């Protein structure tokens, strides 16, 4: 029984010892031409680094002809970087004769970009389909354009360079500018490659993580006659303004007519009021002796003659 306990203790001690001293991993690295001390592997565990990840990365890189340093790989691992992907990116770049060192690859990886995909995109350019871009030529015809953009990753601009969304936005702006400067939509339909030339000459890839290789117009559709629509809208607006002004003048005329009627009624009231004072004035003239009976008859004759003349004139 005691022998079994001793054997178990020895086995446990050996497991713990081999875990702290990864002899097998050290021997595997030695056979692969990677010279790293056993003490360094032990210290990796104490620093929170997985020695297997570092050793396998160094073996892979060394077999591919790269010169790597364990301390650099450890530092990248501790910075939460993806060590295997960085090594694969370095190997791909080395085979494709793309200048890329470990510091640059690590910086790209820590910046949140896929460094391996960037290297692959440098070897095999990527085709991006732009969303439909709507623009209007000078003759007022709307054109809807779609383009295919071939880009290659710019390794030097991956850190701090603008992304794919910025490239698409700039291309859309260039397409709108090119179509908008055309005298007629027919010119654009006859020579769609003119759009590509104008856009490429603008240098839209400046400050981005990509290099524009080509812009190919995939499709152009004719949309609405924006010029005619704008003219119709303007005519409708002018009509509404004219109607409003006419209504305003009509309202002013009605108000003026009402005002004139009120003044006429006021004048008639004053005349009636003045005529009502005539009998009183004549009576006062009779009493005071200023008006005689003959004068009164002559006034009546004149009034009768005037009424007769007005009656004849109306007939």
What's this, in brief?
The chain has 14 helices and four strands. It is of the alpha+beta class.
- From the N-terminal CA to the C-terminal CA, the straight-line distance is 157 Å
Question: How many β strands by DSSP?
Answer: 4
Tally the helices: what do you get? 14
Oligomer: single chain
* Overall residue-averaged pLDDT value: 76
List the helices and strands and how they pair.
Blueprint: H1 2-20, H2 23-31, H3 38-46, H4 51-63, H5 70-78, H6 83-95, H7 102-110, H8 115-123, E1 126-129, E2 133-136, E3 141-153, H9 164-180, H10 185-190, H11 193-201, E4 210-225, H12 226-276, H13 278-288, H14 293-314
Antiparallel strand pairs: 1-3, 2-3, 3-4
Provide key terms for this protein:
single chain, 315 residues, alpha+beta, 4-stranded antiparallel β-sheet, 14 helices, 65% helix, rod-shaped
Can you describe what's shown?
The protein is α+β, with helices and mostly antiparallel strands. The chain has helices at residues 2-20, 23-31, 38-46, 51-63, 70-78, 83-95, 102-110, 115-123, 164-180, 185-190, 193-201, 226-276, 278-288, 293-314; strands at residues 126-129, 133-136, 141-153, 210-225. Strands 1, 2, 3 and 4 form a 4-stranded antiparallel β-sheet that branches. Strand 2 (133-136) and strand 3 (141-153) form a beta hairpin. The protein is rod-shaped. The mean pLDDT is 76.
